[in-house]
Specification:
Strand content: under 5%
Order of helices and strands: HHHHHHHHHH
Radius of gyration: 18 Å
Helix content: over 70%
Shape: elongated
Number of helices: 10
Number of strands: 0
């Protein structure tokens, strides 16, 4: 646990010191959502119908944008080799880095989403469900994204490869997250969709660090 919290604190402080990356992710998220009304028109009825999808897709793309910094900088300066050679299991280190990534990306995206939901005319009664869905689902984005980031470590153009690998994995959170909002709007109840979204995150929580650690060991060999 000391190794986990030590690495988590280190990554968190590095992200806060290099605030430009966090600002880039949030700026992309905000601009991506705000540009949709210009593309599809300002009609409130149309925007309200697709608002949840707009915010979720923008959140997915913003999460992909931030995956490059998960392991690349540590790999470049040799820190990743030291982490892998330490007495702490590599899976614990991966989980700490993923947790720091979520705190600096997924959590801010979740907190800002209610404001953006107003701009795209989402029904106010669905905004709490949207926020709760993002809170449950964004950890899965960081966990699944870590696998893709590890698999593309050292590649010549990792950004493109990460997108190709991770976007199919992001489909379940996207489907269940938007489904929860749609179910709320038609008064069917969002509980089932939120439970499935939580199941995706719980499924990824133990498996993603194992897969990521295995990919990192292969990249470091």
């Amino acid at each position: 646990m000391m190794a986990f919290f030590g690495l988590f604190r280190r990554d968190l402080l590095l992200s806060l010191r290099q605030g430009g990356e966090v600002g880039l992710v949030l700026g992309f998220f905000v601009l991506a959502v705000l540009m949709f009304p210009f593309g599809v028109g300002p009609e409130p009825q149309l925007l309200g119908r697709i608002a949840a999808g707009i915010i979720w897709v923008a959140a997915l793309l913003a999460a992909v944008l931030s995956l490059d910094r998960l392991f690349a900088s540590d790999h470049a300066d040799g820190s990743l080799d030291l982490i892998a050679l330490s007495s702490s299991p590599l899976e614990v280190a991966v989980l700490a880095k993923v947790a720091a990534h979520w705190v600096t990306t997924g959590l801010p995206l979740t907190l800002i989403s209610p404001v953006l939901a107003v701009f795209v005319d989402l029904d106010p009664k669905a905004i709490p469900v949207l926020t709760l869905g993002l809170l449950i689902g964004t950890p899965a984005l960081s966990l699944l994204g870590a696998i893709a980031a590890a698999l593309t470590l050292g590649a010549r153009r990792p950004g493109v490869l990460v997108s190709l690998l991770v976007l199919p994995l992001y489909l379940p959170p996207l489907i269940f997250g938007t489904g929860a909002v749609e179910a709320t709007l038609v008064a069917e109840g969002a509980r089932a969709h939120l439970l499935l979204l939580g199941a995706v995150t719980l499924f990824a929580l133990p498996l993603a660090p194992l897969a990521t650690a295995a990919a990192l060991r292969q990249a470091l060999d």
